[in-house]
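Batch manifest line 288
LIGAND: NDP
JOB: complex structure
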Amino acid sequence: MTAQIIDGKAIAEQVRGEWKKRADALKAQGVLPGLAVIIVGDNPASKVYVRNKVRACHDVGLHSEVHELPADITEAMLLKQIQDLNANPDIHGILVQLPLPDHISDDKVLETIDVEKDVDGFHLYNLGALVAGNTVFPPCTPYGVQCLIEHTNIPIEGQNAVVVGRSNIVGKPMALMLLHKGATVSICTSKTRDLAFYTRLADILVVAVGRPGLITADMVKEGAAVLDVGINRTDEGKLVGDVDFESVKEKAGHITPVPGGVGPMTISMLVANTVLAAERLSGLGSGK
Ligand code: NDP
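JOB STATUS: finished
ARTIFACT:
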């Protein structure tokens, strides 16, 4: 069996088009959805991610602004910048690109963002709401994966889902989202004794680790849906995921490529959350 390759780029564009209509409706009523992105230091990968996010907002006609801050900025100054953006009525979404320099606490920074503008969904309140099944802003990457699964009509309810990775930004929220949709969910980590035992049980396998070639064909159930979140750069400069794409695609039912799978969806979900925030803060549109 050769897997159906899930075209994340095409689905991401379709999703962006749907949210553009909602953004246009807001603009017609005098509200221009606005996203502020803060980037600290000059991590080249972070710069690429920020550029792609800003470009996506621009394509949909949103306002976006980037605040580039030096790596030696004090934590207090960064928090003040976030507070100013919290108070700015033209800004509906605030995103602080991670990682931050070691002298700055990620937690303090994320907790300072107004929950109603937390379009990345990383604030503890938003993560807690997700646990309770009351999502405020679903974190963009797992939300994008869920959207890919739904757009491809892959059933979730009653299926065995295995998530490899337990970060607060991908693995844990992903597992919760699948759980809320009725899947039976296992979460695997670096401490899991027999990873292949679990991955072979998966009807839906989401891999978010950051290790090229971690998942090989013998670890995948025939016909499974395999969603590869990993982004790794090889010595030759090529981008690859965590899944050995060439061999796994001969066994899986569906598979996402890297690049062109989950990555573009993450960005579309950021656009979605920014428009959603603007709807809610302005009291216009459905806000759902
Ligand atoms: P983290 O480093 O925060 O988490 C990685 C997780 O993988 C940890 O929970 C770790 O377990 C687990 N892990 C490590 N080694 C193994 C192993 N051998 N077997 C099983 N589990 C293992 O990473 P992130 O969640 O932030 O990101 C994961 C990947 O996804 C990265 O490649 C990142 O670049 C990519 N990414 C892609 C995005 C996109 O838009 N496509 C967005 C965000 C991330 P433990 O907790 O025990 O250490």
